[in-house]
Amino acid sequence: MPSIFFLTFVPVFGLVLTSLLLMNRYLSARRKAAMKEALREVNSPAVRPLTPILLAPGRHPLEGILERFNFNRTLQLRIRQAGLTWSPKAVLLAMGICAVCGAVLGTRLHVLFFTASSSAALALAAGLVPLVVIVSKRRKRLRDFEQQLPDALDFLARAMRAGHAFTISLRIMADESPDPLGQEFRTLCMEHSLGAPLPGVLEALIARVPLVDLQFFAAAVTLQRQTGGDLSEVLLKLAGVIRERFALRGKIRATSAHGRMTSVVLMAMPAGVTMFLMVTSPQYLQILQRDPLGKYLIMGAAAGQIIGYFVIRRIVDFEV
Asked: Could you tell me the pTM of the whole model?
């Protein structure tokens, strides 16, 4: 009876919890899409995202198949946002090689006590390593860009107040700014010098660097070109707002540090106690390994730890 209850409760609980997390993420994506659409209405209806005109890499047959599922374009965009020069087919090949290595390793290391489950789990974990690298580099690059943006806006506003035109000030700022901000704005200036309209290159910049602050910058520039006004003053105020957001984000991280530390402790404590018992009293855990139900209990405990970690991280994750 306890085994039936355990095998029924854990999948139902995991399914309900996963559904709630997916629904929360879906609503957050809908809010972000509505904000992006409201900012896009500022531009001319005739403006469309630009096709890259600086580079035209060759196509691979595998990429044509992946484009039917919109996976190739999404992966290529994530690689571009991470600042990497990899191709989607190279990433997929690396994922396949890592997955095969993980599956072979799973046949030797029974981390989940069963050969099939251990092989599948390690294959999945190893296959996701290239994507984890891309996501990590993308997050770091966007964070660096966001930290460099206020100083770049101040520089742009001072250059305009000194008498330079906006396009000249933008090129000077791109040349003087460090990467990744300088790299992206140099690409913008190059596309604009090749004849692309400014609203179009700004929209392409937002596609490459999906930050809310950059959307505000693009909206301010587009509005100023349509209605006039003192753009330098707007940029100075926008830089101040971004710095205030940084300060507020720092306060929130300091306040939520206890919750993040709690998640780390709750994840590390069971693993540490298990390793300690395996060294000091190995016979204490052999009961669970020999019992048929004990293996499922260990797997359920590991799954519960992972689910709890993501739930706590979701609770302490605040959007500013």
From this structure: 0.69
